[in-house]
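Hi again,

Forgot to attach this to my earlier email, sorry! This is the prediction with adenosine-5'-diphosphate bound. I've pasted everything inline since the attachment limit keeps bouncing my files.
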Amino acid sequence: MLSTMMPVPLTIDHMIERAYCLFARELIVSRRPDKTLMRTNYGDVLHRAQHLARACLAGGLRPGDRVATLMWNHQHHLEAYLGLPLGGLVIHTLNLRLFPDDVAYTAAHAEDRWLLVDDILLPVYERFKEQWPFEKVFVVPFGEAPSQHSGYDCYEALLQSADNAVPLPEKKEDDALGLCYTSGTTGRPKGVVYSHRSTMLHAMAMALPDYGRLERGAAITPVVPMFHANAWGLPYSGTLMGCRQVFPGPHLDAASLLDLFEAEQVTMAAGVPTIWMALLQALDAAQGQRWQLPPMRILVGGSAAPEGLIRGLDRHGLHIHHLWGMTETSPMATAAALSSQEHELPVDEQYKKRARQGIPAPFVALRLMDDHGQEVPWDDRAMGEIQVRGPWITGSYLHEGTNPDKFSADGWLRTGDIASCDATGSIRITDRTKDLIKSGGEWISSVALENLIMGHPAVAEAAVIAMPHPKWDERPLAVVVLKPGQTLHPEELLAFMRPHVASWWLPDEVVFANEVPKTSTGKFNKLALREQYCRNKET
Ligand code: ADP
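Structure tokens for the complex follow:
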């Protein structure tokens, strides 16, 4: 029996019409490179987005064609997020922090036809321009007034060329809307293609109270770049819900972010833990004297939110909400929200719960599989690989199909993340398959050790890696960065850790460093650390 429901497709058209009718006067604020603010509203941004769609079609692009962006987080990037899919085009957000070779590889792999590039990012583009011939390159005036850059076209002139008579194409909900590449920490970047449907459903889910909690009246700042995993879908979710969007531009240091949060009274911001660790240090150092922030909700993901960070930000009225996901999962897949019973737990236990990655979002199915293809029990001890399935989880990679390393025989995405699950269904990530430390045949979780070390008051950040060992195969080595002005002896750190972990988990070696190298997306670059410290050992 067929339902009587209307077959209305889930496409970006509805999101745009809705925002245009209901939220036209809500503000969109972007901070320019010189730190002045560019203020406009949804009405203006959506108007420009429509011009962009029509101008691209008039200029010869066809639905399904890819248009790349090389841009920071600001109003014009939002125009591209909305306008390109409105024209049936596919927005490919180039990750400007990848190596130039890799950026060119992704543009070529996606067969991008046009590029929209921030004026201040032209030097980044020029490092790989010889390797992929975009048909046209439009310079977006972000750092300067619109002007002609020789050899390039002007974005403002493109918008002005739009012809209202050009019809916007009808889209099917499974048509491609956007394209992101994984950051390639394990080989060449891989393309993930989002559909209109997956993006709309993800935007709805992200708005839910236990996930992003996007509500009308919220002022939201995606610190996570719009060139990485769609800034966690926040530009779409914020548009769907009519939130004020406050974009930070290129200044992502703690003081600049805090200035922006204070000036614009931001109520929700999202980013990786390293951003918030720096922010916590700045807030602690200011001792409540410098910034007056509203109560804020902080979405943290991309790597594990250490318990010490959650506690620390709570002291300043910034409430961390912990999410897990990956480019392949749009990216939000799980979140840690406390149940009514868990709210009754002693405070220490509540913090432990909040530091977990939590339960899957509605429509996301999740299972933990052991090496023999069996699901592990929910006893919070047994560990297994997280596998996921759902309407915003990729079922393959662009031009690559379904490699069995990445997809199970029954079609679930194999994430490469290792976790245990407690009786309430909440997962706790213990490692990535490639980062686990295997000592004497037993697994040691580098993430658990890092979280413990980062709970020491003198420590700013810490990464733990596996070192080859003649007897035990591998042993943990901790690379520790101290807070400014602090001193710590390795023995003191080990004494701090001893009550919390089995003695054979304690690192064999603790080295102090000025910084932990980061990947293009701000995560600890363990590959680089292993190369650095393993090579030191060999020489
Ligand atoms: P890449 O895999 O290229 O680094 P992604 O941003 O897609 O780029 O990273 C996804 C990975 O980040 C996950 O597979 C997981 O290892 C890690 N990750 C994301 N969120 C969390 C989290 N909350 N806790 C622990 N690890 C996380």
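The mean pLDDT is 93. The two ends are 72 Å apart (CA to CA).

That should be everything now.

G.
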